[in-house]
Amino acid sequence: MAMKNTPCFTLLIVLIILLATITAACVTPASPAPSGAPAPALTSMKVGYQPIISFGPLFIAKEEGFFEQQGIAVEMVKFSSASESLPALINGDIAVSGGQLNPGLINAIHEGAHVRVVADKGIILSDSCTSAAILVRRDLFESGAVTTVSDLRGRKVAAGTDQPYTMFRALALGNLTTNDVEMIDMPRPSILVAFENGAIDAGFLMEPYITEAVRRNKSVVLVKGYDFTPNNSNPLYYGTAIIKTNPELGKRFMVAYLQGVRQYNQGKTERNLEILAKYTQLDRDVLNETCWVYVAENGEVPEAPVREFMDWMYANKKITHTIDMDQLIDRSYVQYANGVLGNMTGNISQDK
Fold it and tell me: Which of 123-127, 149-153, 212-216, 277-281 has the highest mean pLDDT?
């Protein structure tokens, strides 16, 4: 039997087919992204360092990929001291550095520089090994000529440009001042040579130079760092590139840094020895003998030693103004990182 209204029926069939096609197109899943798609680009930043043990957490964080996990590509830039790296930190040529506090830093912050102490990078504890010390020539010690700090009167004593406060505290143990000795400004590697050729009588060194000096058999430890600068911290600094330009980058950097601290504080594991040997250029046997200064795992910098140092700088006209702790220390980065990483063990209580 023939169908009636054939043209209308045909049109209806066409419309149904067209609607089904459109519906299918709408619900068809999108094609998957091609495999092997490039990863997002990493944010590049430069980090100043010195080839000494206390920079170990930075070395570890770089080599273990902790910075890359936070989307950061770190380039390590070598400096001889914290003072030398300060202009680059202020100008934004590097984003991070570390080392002992110095008058130049305090004066720069007072004048508006975007530089802050953000974390600990090595703290001198009473029950730790000797990571900083005053050494004396072995022949002077064994002859009895110099066995106490007071015996340094009139002697040649070497220290780097960052050490005026350190030397003040050390010499005070013998009721001496820098006016009572012949102070010689000398970089750490040169102090080792000066001990060997007898050009100096005593000098201030940090690890790994202490171990290297003692191994050469020309000097001995006269007084340990804790005896003259207890609980002193060598801090980590952020500069303009983070404080002013990209604070978010500083948060991610700190997460990776504290991961490096935790691994560093595991001690002289095979992996840690391998990494520190690469950056310090020290033989593994020497690294095994050196003191690995403890780094606060929560990153906190004790305030009391910092305040004492700043008061001394002001009293001795090394700085023109003192500054508030909040102007010098920014704890927001370690607070953020600890929140990400969770509570850590072995934290140093902040001395307020």
Answer: 149-153
Return the biggest CA–CA distance within the chain: 131
Residue given tokens 């704890």 in the structure block: 331
Q: What is the pLDDT of residue 26?
A: 37
Predicted confidence band at 81 (pLDDT cuts at 50, 70, 90)?
Answer: confident
Distance of CA 348 to the CA centre of its chain: 17
CB 212 within 8 A of CB 190: no
What is the phi/psi pair of residue 238, to 5°? -105, 145
Gap between the Cα atoms of 235 and 139, Å rounded: 35
| Burial class of residue 128 (count of CB atoms within 10 Å of its CB; 0-12, 13-18, 19+) | middle
Region class of 254: left (phi > 0), else alpha (psi between -120 and 50), else beta = alpha
In this structure, what token pair is assigned to residue 206? Answer: 């940090």
pTM of the model: 0.80
Distance CA 279, CA 253 (A): 20
**Do β-strands 116-123 and 233-238 pair in parallel, antiparallel, or remain unpaired?**
antiparallel
Give the model confidence (pLDDT) of 177-209 as tens digits.
999 999 999 988 899 999 999 999 999 998 888
